[in-house]
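Quick one from the shared queue. A colleague (R.T.) flagged diphosphomevalonate decarboxylase as missing a structural entry in our internal table.

Convert sequence to structure tokens.
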Amino acid sequence: MTFTAGAELADPLADRFGDNVIGDAAVAVAHPNIALVKYWGKRDETYFLPVTGSLSMTLDIYPTTTAVRLSSEPGDTVVLNDRPAVGDAHARVARFLDLVRARAGRDEYAVVVSTNAGPTGAGLASSASGFAALAVAAAAAYGLDADARALSRLARRGSGSACRSIFGGFAVWHAGEGDGEAGDASSYAEPIDGDALDPALIVAVVDDGAKAVSSREAMRRTCDTSPFYRPWADASRVDLEEMRKAIARRDLPAVGEIAERNALGMHATMLLARPSVRYLSPRSVAILDRVLALRADGIAAYATMDAGPNVKVLCARADEQRVTTALRDAADIQVAHLGPGAALVRDDER
Ligand code: DP6
């Protein structure tokens, strides 16, 4: 983990804190990650322990910047994208800070100011970058002694997929074994060597609004009610093993095929949930058709979709221009590559 000194990213947030703050802010930046083998389903909701392991690539776009500053005021203050967080959004951050306080043996409340460069809650992994940045900034603000694995386990408690955004490049999240404390210790992400693959991920944004059903609710409903869930989970364990091998031998078509079937399978599980959850829209399907057409033209392009209608297309960097051109009139396009892990940008010098 790189901790870079420097105030340039901290400065834009500095004047958003009120009075009654103690010491300097700890500021962290984290990037979203997109799973090529998905996390879909928890075996333990309290500890965010997944049913299956997953594998992702961290992107170099849509960073979240989060500043945490301890406060002498009662209660946590949370500002997300320039607005005070209330209700569930506030409760999720406050519960997460409770965990950090308990581990650090501290009881001060905090002011948290967080901004996403990308869309929030649109299936573009804003909760992954959000809780990875919060884990790193809050650990620093409360003086918690945490290495990268401990930060990954901590970030997982805010949002499962956040444990992978602690790391740059490709990361695998081990499902771990057991529930409660045993599961907590054994379920973390770690980086895997895949940098040589160096793919492009073309993000086709067809709708950047927040989704109607949260991924948390959708995965719970799927686990509880979908007859497709168990078969998908069994297939996903095989996908994970095959994906690791495909990355190791730098086999982009195999990586893409596994990612696409794993994602389509995940969406199939939700369609059979009761009531059904459908994130893909006609515009998503139009992108999927174009991906098929690209493949028919000999271009190795493969789609993956998360809890939202936006489609991400994996391809070789050498093909990114052709893929972008093929999708341009059907969606807003962002081109992403492998990005960095979560890092502190200004250390707390209280
Ligand atoms: C479809 O990590 O957002 O993006 O742990 O309940 O916060 P919670 O869920 P979250 O789920 C992400 C699901 C996914 C697949 C993935 O990222 O692996």
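The two ends are 21 Å apart (CA to CA).
Residues 35, 38-40, 48, 54, 127, 159-161, 215-216, 306-307 surround DP6 (CB under 6 Å).
Added to the table.
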